[in-house]
Amino acid sequence: MPRKLRISPIGVPQHIIQRGNNRQACFTSEQDFIAYAGWLKDYATKCHVEIHAWVFMTNHVHLLCTPRKADAISQMMQSLGRQYVRYFNYTYKRSGTLREGRFKSCLVQTEEYLLLLYRYIELNPVRASMVNDPAEYQWSSYQINALGKDSQLCTPHDVYLAIHQQAETRQSSYRDMFKHHLNTTLIEDIRQATNKGMAIGNDRFKEEIEKLTGNSMKPKKMGRPIKTKN
Questions:
Q1: d(C-alpha 112, C-alpha 95), whole Å
Q2: Which residue has the higher pLDDT, 118 or 210?
Q3: In whole angstroms, what is the distance from residue 178 CA to residue 133 CA?
Q4: How would you classify residue 16: left for phi > 0, otherwise alpha for psi between -120 and 50, otherwise beta?
Q5: Which residue pairs, CB below 8 angstroms and at least 24 apart, start in 68-71?
Q6: Helical H runs in the chain?
Q7: What single-letter DSSP state applies at residue 10?
Q8: DSSP letter (8 states) at residue 146
Q9: What pLDDT, in 10s, does the model give residues 95-139?
Q10: Which CATH superfamily is 14-199 part of?
Q11: By three-state DSSP, how is residue 93 classified?
Q12: Largest Cα–Cα distance of the chain, in whole Å?
């Protein structure tokens, strides 16, 4: 069965997830995280991709980013993947693949859903019961977006900047968003859209993407079609 064509309109944010093969660990030391973050910054700059939010978990990675040229995200992820696998295999005296095939991705509606994806990504360590507060997890963008930590990797999205003109007030308002967890329905919608390469947004946004790409952005109904009587 041929691979589904990846959709990546310029200027439309995307949620990306890349898992380890068979969910095996991709990061086993602090140096691994540092190396990955450094190459992500380098290839994002080289390929013209803006990184807004991220979390590096033990066996997978989430990114929220915006491509600024055609095929930018695929180029970035391919280059990053090759570089990191070479490093990991050399460091740990192993061979073979590390990643679970192609990365998964979905398009994100900016106006209504972008900040929800910020939260979904940065709350991953909390949902995994690794920490009680996202600020406790070092390998995510929360400390940048919520606490003002300097970062050469992060490019703030206009929607994030529009929270407030003053940085301290913006960060405070951003932290307030994390006082309540995302509901389970939204979490499942994000996971399904990402795994199936569709879009997360309202019906109008999905229809616009369908017209632009010719691909369905809504999940197909399961089961056999209902037969009608003649």
A1: 43
A2: 118
A3: 9
A4: beta
A5: 68/10, 68/11, 69/10, 70/8, 70/10, 71/8
A6: 30-47, 72-91, 110-122, 124-127, 142-145, 158-161, 167-176, 184-195, 203-213
A7: T
A8: T
A9: 888 887 789 999 999 989 999 999 999 999 999 999 999 999 999
A10: Transposase IS200-like (3.30.70.1290)
A11: coil
A12: 68
Distance between the two ends of the chain, CA-based, in angstroms? 35
Query: What tokens were used for 161?
Result: 């900047």
Q: Which residues pair with 140 in a beta bridge?
A: 55
Contact present, 85 and 193 (Cβ < 8 Å): no
**Cα(223)–Cα(2) distance, integer angstroms:** 22
Residue 101 DSSP code: S
**pTM (2 d.p.):** 0.90
Question: Structural domain boundaries of the chain?
Answer: 14-199
Q: List the structure tokens of 9.
A: 């309109």
Instruction: Please tell me the distance from the alpha carbon of residue 145 to that of residue 51, in angstroms, as a whole number.
Output: 12
Per the CB < 8 A criterion, the answer to whether 72 and 8 are in contact is yes
Burial class (CB within 10 angstroms; exposed 0-12, middle 13-18, buried 19+) of 201: buried
Q: Which two tokens stand for residue 99?
A: 């990643």
Q: In degrees to the nearest 10, what's the CA dihedral of 46, 50, 134, 166?
A: 130
Q: 149-178 burial, b for 16+ CB within 10 Å, e for fewer?
A: eebeebbbbebbeebeeeeeebbeebbeeb
CA distance 62 to 53: 8
- Pick the closest to residue 146 from 125, 122, 128 (CA basis): 122
Mean pLDDT of 195-199: 90
